[in-house]
Amino acid sequence: MRLRRELQRLNPDENHFRLLGVPARFELDADALERRYRELQREVHPDRFAAASQAEQRVSMQLATRVNEAYQTLKSPLRRAGYLLALNGVDPEFETNTAMPPEFLADQMEKREALEAAAAAGDWEGMIALSSELRLEQDALLARIGRQLDASEWAEAAATLRQLKFLEKLGEDIAAAEERMES
After folding, report:
1. Which conformational region is residue 125 in: left (phi greater than 0), alpha (psi within -120 to 50 degrees), or beta?
2. pLDDT reading at 11 higher than 80
3. Is there a contact between 114 and 173 (Cβ–Cβ < 8 Å)?
4. Over the chain, what is the mean pLDDT?
5. End-to-end CA, the chain
6. Which of 18, 26, 43, 94 has its CA at a distance of 20 to 30 angstroms from the CA of residue 119?
7. What is the full DSSP assignment across 108-176?
C-alpha cells in the first residue's frame, strides 16, 4: 500500500530531471540533486518494503534502480549533457561523426605524444602538468557546453560533447599510465 502511494506520487516514466525534481538544464545545484536523490532513495529503498508482498518488493527495487540511474546520469556533466541532447532529439553521433576541428586534433596528438614520452621516462612532473592542462581544457569545454545547451544550440553542443569524450578518454589513458608508473 505504501509503495502504491509512492508510485502515484513518483512517476517512474518521467525524465530524470522531473523524477529528481531539478530544472532540466545543464547547470545544476549538485547539493540539491544529492539531497533529492537521498530523499527518494529513503522513500523507495527495498529495505523499507522487506515485509511487503513480492510484487511490491519488485516494484520497489525497480523504482530504486530508476532513481539511482537518474541520479548517476545527472550528477555526471558528460552524461547529463548527452541526456539533455537526447531529450531534445539530438544524437551526438559518437560512432559516426568523427569530424573535429583540425587544431583540436593536432592538440590531441601532441598531448598523446607528451603522455607517451612522460610515461616512458617515468616523468611524474610531466604527467602532473599534462593532467592539469587536461583539466583546464575540460573545464573550458564544460563551460562552453553548458552555455550551448542552455541556449538550445544543440548541434554545437553535440560537437562539444564529442570533444569532451576525446578528453575523457585521454584522462583515462593518463590515469592508466600513472598506475603503470606506480607499479
Report:
1. alpha
2. no
3. no
4. 90
5. 55
6. 94
7. HHHHHHHHHHHHHHT-HHHHHHHHHHHHHHHHHHHHHHHHHHHTT-HHHHHHHHHHHHHHHHHHHHHHH
Q: How far is CA 146 from the centre of its chain?
A: 13
Q: Residues 6 or more apart from 19 whose CB is under 8 A from it?
A: 10, 11, 12, 40, 66, 67, 70
Residue-wise pLDDT for 46-58, tens only, equals 887 787 788 888 8
Q: Is the distance from CB of 156 to CB of 148 less than 8 angstroms?
A: yes
What's the predicted TM-score (pTM) here?
0.85
Q: Which residues contact 149 (CB under 8 A, 6 or more apart)?
A: 25, 26, 81, 84, 85, 157
The ranges assigned to domains in the chain are 2-75, 102-182
Band of the pLDDT at 5, cuts 50, 70, 90?
A: low
CA atoms within 13 Å, Cβ hemisphere of 22 = 25
C-alpha cell at 94: 559518437
Report residue 1's pLDDT band, with 50, 70 and 90 as the boundaries.
very low
pLDDT at residue 2, as a whole number: 56
- Answer whether CATH 1.20.1280.20 is correct for domain 102-182: yes
